[in-house]
Design brief:
Radius of gyration: 27 Å
Helix content: 40-55%
Shape: globular
Strand order of the largest sheet: 2-1-3-4
Length: 729
């Protein structure tokens, strides 16, 4: 074992038996590099990263390579999911110097942690004119020995460039208008794949922020064609192999344009965002009269959330991070099927229907090219030939039995397929599962918390509300330290927030840590942890109208602003001011597979400001929008979530205020009705607790009454759920 055996990260623990003398990202490693005057070899990845596994198998498990690394370098391993702030700095360096990026990310640094060379995957032998990993190590070690001054000078120059690249200042006179949204929507529509759905070419990532933004733009602009693009995309993704047709949930991306062959790892953040997207699609399809399509999208949302409850939930309520692509050394082995295997498992009738439905062939449709001896005839399940609903089919009639009992009814194709899937699920459950990355991150838990909370209101599923409540209790117990005077816990950091309405008076704010695993939390604080969790807690408040959830959202927002906000230029730093292990303090400004912390913080603060009436929440959000205004216009593809915040900011949001007894059925019916209409720029609140002052003036003489308001003007109050739906529509 090496020293990574002391760590909690599943990714670092995977490397604990390597012959490489790995260090974690800490002062011990930095001091060793300075003392021994060696360059740092920094390798960044994550536990379910397929090509990280490949490079480990080829290079980091090799004794000779390990010995060479130990002699000439100080080697550091980083889990990018635990330390996205570290990853952001060095990924930006590699992208700016090579034009590409990804994981594993391998970078060489001076002992002062300044990068001078980097790339992604390096093979163990010479390929396509590129040197092997061992050759590269030898070249870098030689340069460090013979041309040290040139390398350090180059590193200083590259560091200065990196500072310029990551500097973010608002450009003056950049207007924020509906035209920005219109232009962005048109760009996304031009990239739309009319045959297969999605916005772009293979490999295809769902990137839920993009279809969610297009759907918002469709609502704002009355663009039916844009809405149909999103609904079609959701149809195609749900039918594809990227969607686990047996176990639920979605893989990270598909390698082809048809969504059929996935890169099999499943990430919590993808599934959280996709659950929200399918809830949107369900509501939009229902509004357009497509009941069958609406129900299909609701079923997909349930499928994702049920997968999460079954396979990604800690007994105490936290959500695990991911499942690997590989099992038994082969990518996709857990998920794929051979023609022969299914023919033995199923009855002939079940097999015929299943093979046709999923496109099962003897040749298969997937080859694991990363393995020296790929498995033959592997089939990824995707819906190649959809079956019509059972109610639209005629039952097949069999002849009378030998005893003359008369005709018997054979099962229809839907019943045969259901029986087959049950057998396949039972058989798959006996296989060796892929690795579960069981660390619990505040950021990704916030995204999934929001999905369960909203689904409980949209779909009327009490178990989803219970999952959201239990998750928040877990996060508050394991990762949150409340400030003294609010929940009795001492404040470990010196952060403080101006008291609302009291000039110059400050009160302490709480501290949110990032990772918990195996009974232990880290000491890392990140913007995305605060922002994503704030978003989730706001969803939970809107789904329940429990004042305690709004109180916690306020505490989180105050802590986020005190710890990360840049009042000089707007925007939020990714890390606190005291993060001394970083060579730069960076503001993330990119919405990719995960939305950026600044984007989520902006929309969450705008919503919270509308609910509470607090300008000290609105002002940082507006300054952050202005900071990103130029990029919103010039690079909308990388700012899809921030564009959703812009969409919310452009108009006074509709406020649905529900007054009355929260323990009555009509209160819950009105609350469900408020969430049953696709109206993205609305907020739902009660008339008690930390809500804005106008809402507190709205009362009821009945058990419950709903008001739909804009500013201080409201439509006639109602206690009828259907009337509320009509008012929102």
């Amino acid at each position: 074992m090496n020293r990574l055996a002391r760590e909690k990260s599943p990714y670092l623990l995977q490397h604990a038996h390597n012959p490489v003398d790995w260090h974690a990202w800490n002062d011990e490693a930095f001091a060793k590099a300075r003392t021994e005057d060696k360059p740092i070899f920094l390798s960044i990845g994550y536990a379910t990263c397929h090509w990280c596994h490949v490079m480990e198998r080829e290079s980091f498990e090799d004794e000779k390579t390990g010995t060479y690394l130990n002699e000439h370098f100080v080697s550091i391993k980083v889990d990018r999911e635990e330390r996205p702030d570290v990853d952001k700095i060095y990924m930006t360096f590699v992208q700016s110097t090579t034009g590409g990026g990804g994981w594993p990310l391998n970078v060489w640094l001076t002992p002062e942690r300044k990068p001078f060379f980097g790339g992604t995957y390096f093979p163990p032998d010479t390929r396509h004119g590129r040197p092997s990993f061992r050759q590269l190590l030898e070249q870098i070690a030689g340069l460090w020995r013979e041309r040290r001054l040139e390398i350090t000078a180059s590193a200083d120059e590259l560091h200065a460039r990196l500072e310029l690249i990551t500097a973010r200042e608002a450009k003056e006179n950049t207007p924020l208008t509906p035209q920005t949204l219109r232009r962005a929507a048109e760009q996304f529509k031009e990239a739309y794949d009319a045959t297969n759905g999605g916005f772009g070419r293979a490999p295809k990532f769902p990137q839920p922020s993009i279809p969610a933004l297009v759907l918002r733009a469709a609502k704002r602009l009355g663009d039916e064609a844009a809405a149909k693009m999103v609904l079609h995309t959701c149809d195609k993704m749900a039918a594809g192999g990227i969607h686990d047709q047996l176990g639920g949930g979605f893989a990270r991306y598909a390698v082809d344009a048809e969504w059929r062959v996935p890169h099999f790892e499943k990430m919590l953040y993808d599934n959280a965002q996709l659950a929200q997207l399918y809830l949107d699609a369900h509501l939009m399809a229902k509004a357009e009269g497509g009941e069958q399509q609406a129900e299909a999208h609701a079923a997909t949302a349930r499928d994702i959330l049920d997968y999460g409850l079954r396979d990604l939930t800690h007994a105490d309520g936290g959500f695990f991070s991911a499942e690997d692509a590989d099992s038994e050394g082969h990518e996709g082995k857990f998920y794929c099927w051979t023609h022969e295997e299914l023919a033995k498992l199923l009855t002939p009738e079940e097999f015929i229907v299943t093979a046709q439905h999923f496109g099962i062939t003897k040749e298969g449709n997937f080859v694991d090219h990363s393995h020296p001896t790929p498995l033959a005839g592997q089939n990824v399940l995707s819906v190649v030939n959809p079956l019509p609903p059972a109610r639209d089919r005629q039952f097949r009639r069999a002849p009378a039995g030998p005893a003359g009992e008369g005709e018997t009814t054979e099962p229809d194709d839907q019943s045969l397929l259901a029986a087959a899937k049950a057998k396949m699920s039972a058989a798959r459950a006996k296989r060796i599962r892929p690795l579960l990355d069981d660390k619990i991150l505040a950021s990704w838990n916030g995204l999934m918390l929001g999905a369960y909370a909203r689904a409980s209101a949209v779909l009327g599923e009490e178990r989803y509300r219970a999952a959201a409540e239990k998750n928040l209790a877990f996060i508050r117990e394991k990762l949150w330290e409340a400030p003294q005077g609010r929940a009795g816990s001492p404040l470990p950091a010196a952060a403080s927030q101006p008291d609302d309405g009291a000039h110059g008076v400050t009160r302490p704010t709480g501290t949110l840590f990032h990772r918990w695993r195996d009974g232990e939390r880290d000491q890392v604080q990140l913007l995305e942890g605060h922002a994503f969790l704030l978003d989730g807690v706001i969803h939970l408040y809107e789904a329940t109208l429990e004042p305690k959830h709004l109180d916690f959202a306020v505490e989180l927002a105050e802590a986020m602003i005190a710890t990360f906000y840049d009042p000089a230029n707007g925007g939020f730093w990714q890390s606190p001011a005291g993060a001394t292990d970083l060579i730069l303090r960076v503001k993330d400004d990119y919405d990719g597979a995960e939305p950026g912390g600044n984007s989520v913080a902006t929309l969450a603060l705008l919503k919270l400001a509308a609910i509470t009436g607090r300008e000290d929440f609105r002002e940082p959000a507006e300054a952050t929008l202005q900071l990103g205004a130029h990029r919103l216009q010039s690079q909308p593809a990388g700012m899809a979530y921030m564009l959703q915040a812009l969409d919310f900011w452009l108009d006074e949001p509709r406020r649905v205020v529900i007054a009355g007894n929260p323990n009555t059925p009509i209160f819950h019916e009105l609350l469900r009705a408020a969430h049953s209409v696709y109206q993205p720029n609305k907020i739902v609140l009660g008339n008690t607790g930390a809500v804005e002052s106008f809402a507190k003036t709205l009362a009821t003489k009945n058990e419950a009454t709903a008001y739909v308001c804009t500013g201080t003007a409201c439509q006639p109050p109602t206690s009828e759920p259907e009337v509320l739906r009509q008012e929102l529509s």
